[in-house]
Every structure is written in structure tokens, then in C-alpha cells.
Design a protein that fits this description.
Helix content of chain B: over 70%
Number of strands of chain A: 6
Largest sheet of chain B: none
Distance between the termini of chain B: 40 Å
CATH topology of chain B: Serine Threonine Protein Phosphatase 5, Tetratricopeptide repeat
Oligomer: heterodimer
Order of helices and strands of chain B: HHHHHH
Helix content of chain A: over 70%
Number of helices of chain A: 15
Largest interface: A-B, 41 and 38 residues
CATH class of chain B: Mainly Alpha
Shape of chain A: globular
Number of domains of chain B: 1
Structural class of chain A: mainly alpha
Number of strands of chain B: 0
Radius of gyration of chain B: 17 Å
Shape of chain B: flat
Strand content of chain B: under 5%
Strand order of the largest sheet of chain A: 5-1-6
Structural class of chain B: mainly alpha
Radius of gyration of chain A: 22 Å
């Protein structure tokens, strides 16, 4: 009995162990060799610890940024980063084990829905499922759910999103790719549908509709070649300008003997390092789990349609990707200045989301409204994907998150369903 | 409004495979022979395009394994996201579906990994990474 209690109280409460055991289960179900099972399990365990280390680095940098922003601009400046939210939820808030089990539950619900309904989508973007598991767990916890209920509700909500998002995007995807073989599995889909709707309403119609693909544009976004450099290009000026507004006197209270602007520069680099480490951890963590479970999913639902990450659409409309990135960035910058006028926090633009979500949304806007649709739709899309995360800031703050909010709008929508619908219902009883 | 409910119609169109006439087959075989000849003499800078054209001809002819091999060579030589890319992704997905139906876990994983690599190529090409 003592041994069982020890296992339950000291081992299974550790998030890293739970995640490693999930990977182990996947590897055993795939009938891998003993050596492969052991190495895969250990790699997953290591991945979680790397993720935790990345999260600590990000939190340190964000805490500093929060202070100088408040001093410099007398308001809260929030960095949209689903990675930072995931890292903090997994570690600082101690929800790692529940997130890991919800992640597994989302996979299972996805398989069940695809197996027994006519919606045959299997969501293959593992990282996106991890972000969804993070948000359903955090907001389930906020709503008062605990234990198995937290995991099952999160798994169900996430599983429904994993099927519903590819399903609502599919009529567009069919038109873009000309086939029904592949679906879009990216949790920014509500934003894409929003841009498609705006494009349809305000874009060019009929014979006047001119695709952006008919124009010759520079086809490459060379400044975005390196993910981390592109984050750095935004973060360094952001930190230095904010530090300058906060002033030398305040800056020196945080920077010790180092010059306050130099310290701001180094803290910006720290943020990028944190994202780098955290994402390496995520890759390591998912490297064993995702192949195992998606293999199982595809065999259990042999007639499934794979829902793939957003780059699946880029080759069909490369100019629209560039236009979508630019217009979404414009929209997010506008929202950054406009939202605080309505009492919301200032959400700083996230370049990676603008590129991937904005680029894909551009394809949808161009499809329904041609060039004009993509431009107007893109700007409003940028506004939309900044507004939604802004609505979560108060809850994140109350739960102890440091200066960050989520990005991918489908995960934000799931969170809002919890906060606005489930939480009042649960609290009423 | 956006074409909801047209899935069945499209799916039926897709399943109707186009039967090539003997003349068309002969023409495609000629194209293949020509491309192979050109490849033997071509500089490396031109080989990617020739392999892509070769792969597309094989695909049209229904020789999917040879099409996959030629299109893979093309992308190895130069990353691109044109017709060859789209065709290769479609072929990988067909092979993935066949492996799933046959309950062949190993082949299924192989093509899922190939599809992952295609996503990376698409990202790289869009961002201008050579």
C-alpha cells in the first residue's frame, strides 16, 4: 500500500512523468521494440524539462517587460504568445499533468468523432492540439473544473474543435486546392472564415473580381527566413523603446550596474532565447507522441481526411500569403492603438501569428473577394485576431499569468466558451 | 454561398478516373523518353525542372511510383511549390490513405513523415529559404 501511495503521490503528480507515460503508451501500442520504447519515453521526459527551462527564461523577460511598460506608458502591454501561455500553465501554474492528459483526450475524442460521424477529419498538427489542450485546461480550471471532469470536458471541447474547424474550412479548401483529399488543421480557422466573410461582403464580385495571383509580387519574404531572427527584429526595438520611455532612473532599478538600454536589449534577446528553448522542448515532447497517436488514429479511421498545418495552402496562392501577412500586420498595429481606448489592454503585434495566420487568411480573402477582399479582409482580420486575445487578458491576469495572452483564435474562442458560457453555468449550481 | 453542400458532387467528379487513349499514352511515353534524354545532358541547374516535368508525365500516365521518385528528385535539387509539389503531396496522400486502409502502420508512418517534410518545404519556399 505504501508503495502505491508513493507512486500516486510522488510520481504520477509529476507532469513530466505523466507525459512520458503517455508517450510510452503510444510506443507500446505501436509495438515498438523495448529499446525504442525506452528511448522515446526518455526523450519525451527530457522534452518537458527543456520546455520548462524555456518557460522560466520567458517569464523572467516578460516580468521585466511588464514593469518597464507600465512605467513608460502607464498601462499594461501584453505580448501575444501561446508558447508563453503554455509554458506558464505547464510549470508556474502546475497544470502540466492535466494539460498532458487533456492532450491525449483530444486525440481520443477526435478519433471517436471521426469514426462515428460523417465528419472524417483527423487533426494532424500536434503543436496546435497542445495549444488547444493548454487553453481548455486553463479555462476549465478557471471555471472550477478539477480532476477527471477537467480532462474529459477539455478533451471533448478540443476534440469537437479538431473536427469542426477543418469541417468549416473545407468548402473553401476544396475551392483553393480543387480536391477534397486534404483538409486544413490549424487553430486559426475562425479568423480565416471571418476574413472570407469580410472578403465576400466588401470584395470584388463576379467579373470584376481580380485575384492577387494575377499580379507579379516579390515571391519571397526573406526577412522572415529565420523564425527567431524575425521575433528578435520585433522584440529588440519594442524593449528598447519601452525602456527609453520608462527612463534611465526607473530602468536602473532593474538593471543593476548595466546600462538600462543595454539591459533592455539583453532582456529582449532573453525572450527570443526563451521561445527558442521552449519550442525545442515542444518539438522533443511531441516528437514521439504525435507520430504514435496519429498512426493509431489513421488506422482506426481509414477513410479519414488528414487536416494538415497551414503551409498546405501556401503553394496554391503564394501572393495572397504575402498580402495577408502585410494586411494582418496593419490590422494588428491599428488594434494595438485602438483597443486601449476602449479600456482593453494593449496587445503588441505577434509577427509569427501575423505570418502564418495572416498569410493563410489572405488566401481565404482573395478567394472570396479578390484583391480588394484580401486587403479589407486582411486588415479586419488583423484587428479581429488582436481583439479576441485582448478579451482574455483580465482572466489571465487573475490567474497569475505574466504579461502574455494567447494567439490562435480557435483556442481563444474555446477559452471564451468556457469563460462566458460554462463558467457562469457551473458557478450557478 | 461559399459552396456548402457541394461536397458530394465534387467527390463524384474526383472518383471518375480519366482513361487515356493509346495515342495519349504514346505521346506521354515520348515526352518521358525526351525528358530522360535531356536529363542525361542537362546542367544541374536545369535538372530540377526536367525532373518535375518527367514526374508530371509519369503521373498522368498513372505510373505513380516513378512519378514520386522523379518529383522527389526535383525537390531535392531545388525546393519549389509549383505543380510538381502539389502532385507529389497528392500522391503521398493517396499512398497514406492506401496504407491506412491496408492497416500497414509502417508505410502509413513513412508517408505521414513525407507529408510533414512537404509542409516544411512549403514554409521554406514561402520564406525564401533555399
Amino acid at each position: 500500500m505504501g508503495v502505491i501511495n508513493f507512486i500516486i503521490q510522488n510520481i504520477l503528480t509529476q507532469a513530466s512523468i505523466t507525459i512520458a507515460l503517455i508517450a510510452m503508451l503510444g510506443l507500446v501500442l505501436q509495438k515498438k521494440s523495448v529499446g525504442q520504447v525506452i528511448s522515446g519515453t526518455l526523450k519525451t521526459l527530457l522534452g518537458f524539462q527543456v520546455l520548462s527551462a524555456g518557460s522560466s527564461i520567458i517569464v523572467g523577460s516578460l516580468t521585466y517587460f511588464g514593469k518597464i511598460f507600465k512605467e513608460g506608458f502607464h498601462m499594461q502591454g501584453i505580448i501575444p504568445s501561446i508558447e508563453a501561455i503554455n509554458g506558464q500553465a505547464m510549470n508556474e501554474l502546475g497544470l502540466g499533468r492535466d494539460i498532458a492528459l487533456t492532450f491525449l483526450a483530444i486525440f481520443i475524442f477526435n478519433i471517436l468523432i471521426a469514426r462515428f460521424t460523417k465528419w472524417k477529419y483527423i487533426f494532424l498538427t500536434g503543436q496546435a492540439i497542445l495549444w488547444m489542450a493548454t487553453m481548455t485546461t486553463v479555462f476549465g480550471y478557471f471555471s472550477g473544473l478539477r480532476g477527471i471532469a477537467l480532462i474529459l470536458v477539455g478533451g471533448f471541447v478540443g476534440g469537437v474543435f479538431a473536427v469542426a474547424m477543418p469541417a468549416i474550412a473545407q468548402p473553401f479548401v476544396r475551392k483553393i486546392t480543387g480536391s477534397n483529399d486534404i483538409a486544413l488543421g490549424h487553430f486559426c480557422t475562425i479568423g480565416y472564415i471571418f476574413e472570407a466573410g469580410v472578403g465576400y461582403l466588401f470584395g470584388e464580385k463576379g467579373e470584376k473580381k481580380k485575384s492577387i495571383e494575377d499580379i507579379k509580387l516579390p515571391t519571397q519574404l526573406e526577412f522572415l527566413q529565420d523564425t527567431y531572427l524575425s521575433v528578435m527584429v520585433v522584440m529588440v526595438p519594442l524593449y528598447i523603446i519601452t525602456a527609453a520611455f520608462a527612463g534611465a532612473k526607473f530602468g536602473a532599478t532593474l538593471s543593476g550596474g548595466t546600462n538600462y538600454l543595454m539591459y533592455a536589449f539583453l532582456q529582449a534577446i532573453q525572450f527570443v532565447v526563451g521561445v527558442y528553448v521552449l519550442l525545442s522542448g515542444v518539438r522533443m515532447l511531441l516528437g514521439e507522441i504525435v507520430p504514435a497517436f496519429r498512426g493509431i488514429a489513421m488506422r482506426l479511421v481509414p477513410d479519414s481526411i488528414p487536416a494538415l498545418d497551414c503551409p498546405v495552402l501556401f503553394p496554391y496562392s503564394p501572393n495572397a500569403v504575402i498580402l495577408g501577412f502585410i494586411t494582418t500586420t496593419i490590422g494588428s498595429v491599428l488594434a494595438m492603438f485602438i483597443l486601449p481606448q476602449f479600456g482593453l489592454a494593449m496587445i503588441l503585434p505577434g509577427m509569427l501569428t501575423n505570418f502564418f495566420a495572416g498569410g493563410t487568411a489572405g488566401i481565404f480573402g482573395n478567394l472570396t473577394g479578390g484583391r480588394r477582399g484580401a486587403i479589407i479582409g486582411g486588415i479586419l482580420h488583423g484587428f479581429f485576431i488582436t481583439l479576441l486575445p485582448a478579451l482574455l487578458v483580465t482572466i489571465f491576469n487573475s490567474m497569475g499569468f505574466v504579461n502574455a495572452t494567447a494567439t490562435d483564435v480557435d483556442t481563444v474562442t474555446a477559452a471564451l466558451i468556457y469563460a462566458w458560457l460554462l463558467s457562469p453555468i457551473l458557478k450557478a449550481f | 454561398m461559399f459552396g456548402f453542400g457541394k461536397k458530394k458532387e465534387k467527390a463524384e467528379q474526383k472518383t471518375a478516373t480519366i482513361e487515356l487513349s493509346p495515342e495519349q499514352k504514346a505521346e506521354l511515353n515520348q515526352v518521358i523518353a525526351l525528358k530522360q534524354q535531356e536529363l542525361a545532358q542537362a546542367e544541374e541547374s536545369l535538372q530540377a525542372v526536367l525532373y518535375e516535368e518527367l514526374g508530371l508525365a509519369y503521373e498522368e500516365l498513372g505510373e505513380t511510383d516513378q512519378a514520386v521518385s522523379a518529383l522527389e528528385k526535383s525537390l531535392q535539387l531545388k525546393k519549389s511549390a509549383g505543380r510538381g509539389y502539389k502532385t507529389l503531396l497528392k500522391l503521398y496522400n493517396q499512398k497514406r490513405a492506401a496504407a491506412a486502409k491496408a492497416n500497414d502502420g509502417q508505410t502509413l508512418q513513412y508517408y505521414l513523415e513525407k507529408i510533414d517534410q512537404m509542409m516544411q518545404i512549403s514554409k521554406d519556399v514561402t520564406r525564401g529559404i533555399k
